[in-house]
Design brief:
Elements: H1 2-5, E1 9-11, E2 21-23, H2 31-47
Antiparallel strand pairs: 1-2
């Protein structure tokens, strides 16, 4: 989804092109966007963990 919206986001270089992205500097890339992408990634990883391994509290 992000690859469609932002010109500076591409399929991951040397990674699984479905699950990884590469971010290049650009006018659309902000600190807030990077933070959002990291938080979304974290949430996806945690959702895939067995419930017994998930953190007790959501950030």
């Amino acid at each position: 989804m992000h690859r469609v919206i932002y010109d500076s986001i591409h399929a991951g270089y040397h990674m699984n092109k479905r699950h990884w992205i590469s971010i290049c500097a650009g006018e659309q890339i902000s600190e807030g966007l990077i933070k959002q992408l990291v938080e979304e990634s974290y949430d996806l990883v945690v959702a895939g963990l067995p419930k017994r391994l998930r953190p007790m509290e959501k950030r």
